[in-house]
């Protein structure tokens, strides 16, 4: 085994120039097969191991070159790996430009290339910074893992953030591994995934004594093994409880994005939602207490439409609740016209009692950044840019616990204030979305798995209602209780799972637990380097 890995690494190291960068792009794209919906885990290990070894090749072959040259070569190869990874993982973005092909189809290749190019920069910096500051051998391998996660974190907030296709999502079919997110969050699981790949990469370093390689590789492998044991134990002792008196109905109307805003079809869409909401339940002996429609389910502003609200109230039982996505506009008396992507709570005979406005808008989808300079149209219908909501508000849901509301891709972002989930009155995450933009691609599956981690991190159930799928009810351990299929017209009737009463470690401390983990690994593996720097500073 060692001989095979040593020989394989030697061959990778000998590849130079454009061939090395083409290899980096190729193995980056290969790694995509480990992401949802494919989830073929072994390929991410192969992909990341080769990534490690291509960087080794640069450092070995450029010993006599300047640090600037080496930094650039490392960045370029890292960027190439990232470009392949994001190009293969984000190809589905092109679908959104073909909803209105006459206007936007020509932009699709540029959008995919631009997004992949930008996201790859983070991997380029991961490669260059981690290798430049590291000593050869084991410490360099682990530093690559640390810097990968650091730049995943940066990617999650820089320039509005885009924490999509994090390494942690390759474990979507292995609930035992994902349980560690309750301590270290989604980025902690990404770090552990990198450690697993590194445990293999170390074995190929023939310049390190074989015994030391085997011991260290086994030590790194122990981390994912311990994580699996922790997850298995956590699930084994989990308790399945539901919130008393809450009967949910998730309505997935499966309306094509091309038809969604056609004026002649608007009444048909509303009638579809109403008829599906009134359908007799096969799961409940009584009517659902809470009916939930997806993002922008209603094509008009409900705050100024009493007739529509009265119509919606007719489908509700006594004290029943409807939660729906809708566009909301500022009053006509306002001098400045504004619109929001909103979520409304409607109660029978009382009308709208609660509203949440989406805060994290999609650049170029819901608004155009730097509009004064960029003469472009947003992809979502309508000329006006959406305005972001002002506050992170808990949604008061009558006869149910308060919800943490998110709309569309807001669900992929970690909570800025994780302690909000420890509020005793908070009981669930509610995510309304419309993935019809992505068609029958990998996009909806990736979106769901990214959102699932909010339940895992905070020990709160997640209810996700999508226009074309995937709509799900997820328990506080991240397990799917009920789910629709993609492009399916259906309803889901389900109880609301109860939250974990004691919350999670992550919900109390957030990413400080991850910071402590990274600091521990960095200190142990770079002790000699830190000691040398301290001595220099003393002199």
Index terms:
5-stranded mixed β-sheet; 539 residues; alpha/beta; 6-stranded mixed β-sheet
Give an account of the 3D structure.
With 539 residues, the chain is of the alpha/beta class. 45% of the residues lie in helices and 14% in strands. The protein has 17 helices and eleven strands. The strands form two sheets. It has a six-stranded mixed β-sheet. It has a five-stranded mixed β-sheet with strand order 6-7-8-9-10, with helices on one face. Helix 13 links the parallel strand 2 and strand 3. Helix 2 packs antiparallel against helix 3, helix 3 packs antiparallel against helix 4 and helix 4 packs across helix 6. The relative contact order is 0.11. The mean pLDDT is 92.
């Amino acid at each position: 085994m060692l001989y095979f890995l040593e020989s394989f690494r030697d061959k990778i190291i000998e590849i130079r120039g454009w061939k090395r960068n083409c290899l980096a792009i190729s193995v980056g794209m290969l790694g995509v097969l480990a992401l949802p919906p494919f989830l073929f885990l072994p390929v991410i290990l192969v992909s990341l191991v080769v990534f490690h070894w291509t960087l080794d090749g640069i450092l070995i072959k450029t010993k006599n070159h300047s640090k600037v040259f080496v930094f650039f070569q490392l960045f370029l190869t890292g960027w190439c790996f990232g470009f392949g990874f994001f190009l293969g993982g984000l190809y589905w973005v092109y679908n959104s430009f073909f909803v209105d092909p006459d206007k936007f189809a020509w932009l699709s290749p540029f959008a995919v290339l631009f997004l992949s190019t930008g996201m790859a920069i983070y991997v380029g910096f991961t490669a260059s910074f981690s290798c430049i500051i590291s000593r050869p051998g084991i410490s360099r391998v682990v530093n690559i893992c640390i810097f990968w996660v650091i730049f995943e974190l940066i990617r999650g907030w820089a320039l509005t953030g885009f924490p999509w296709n994090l390494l942690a999502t390759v474990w979507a079919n292995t609930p035992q591994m994902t349980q560690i997110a309750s301590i270290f969050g989604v980025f902690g699981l990404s770090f552990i995934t990198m450690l697993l790949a590194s445990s293999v990469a170390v074995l190929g370093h023939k310049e390190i004594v074989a015994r030391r390689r085997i011991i260290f590789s086994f030590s790194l492998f122990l981390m994912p093994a311990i994580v699996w044991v922790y997850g298995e134990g956590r699930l084994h002792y989990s308790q399945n409880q539901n919130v008393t008196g809450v009967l949910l109905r998730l309505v997935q109307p499966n309306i094509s994005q091309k038809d969604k805003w056609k004026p002649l079809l608007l009444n048909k869409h509303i009638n579809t939602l109403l008829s599906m909401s009134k359908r007799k339940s096969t799961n409940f002996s009584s009517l659902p207490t809470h009916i939930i429609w997806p993002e922008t389910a209603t094509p008009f502003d409900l705050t100024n439409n009493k007739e529509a609200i009265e119509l919606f109230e007719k489908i509700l039982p006594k004290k029943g609740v409807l939660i729906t996505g809708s566009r909301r506009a500022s009053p006509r008396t306002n001098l400045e016209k504004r619109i929001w992507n909103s979520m409304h709570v409607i109660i029978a005979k009382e009308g709208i009692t609660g509203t949440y406005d989406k805060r994290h808008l999609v650049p170029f989808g819901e608004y155009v950044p730097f509009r004064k300079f960029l003469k472009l149209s947003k992809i979502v219908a309508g000329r006006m840019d959406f305005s972001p909501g002002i506050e992170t508000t808990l949604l008061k849901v009558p006869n149910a616990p308060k919800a943490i509301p998110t709309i569309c891709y807001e669900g992929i972002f970690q909570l800025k204030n994780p302690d909000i989930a420890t509020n005793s009155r908070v009981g669930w995450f509610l995510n309304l979305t419309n993935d019809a933009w992505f068609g029958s691609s990998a996009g909806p599956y990736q979106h769901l798995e990214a959102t699932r981690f909010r339940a895992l991190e905070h020990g709160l159930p997640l209810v996700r209602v999508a226009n074309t799928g995937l709509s799900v009810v997820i328990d506080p351990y991240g397990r799917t209780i009920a789910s629709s299929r993609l492009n399916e017209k259906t309803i889901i009737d389900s109880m609301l799972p109860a939250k974990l009463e004691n919350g999670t470690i992550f919900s109390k401390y957030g990413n400080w637990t991850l910071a402590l983990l990274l600091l521990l690994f960095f200190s142990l593996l770079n002790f000699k380097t830190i000691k040398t720097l301290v001595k220099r500073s003393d002199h």
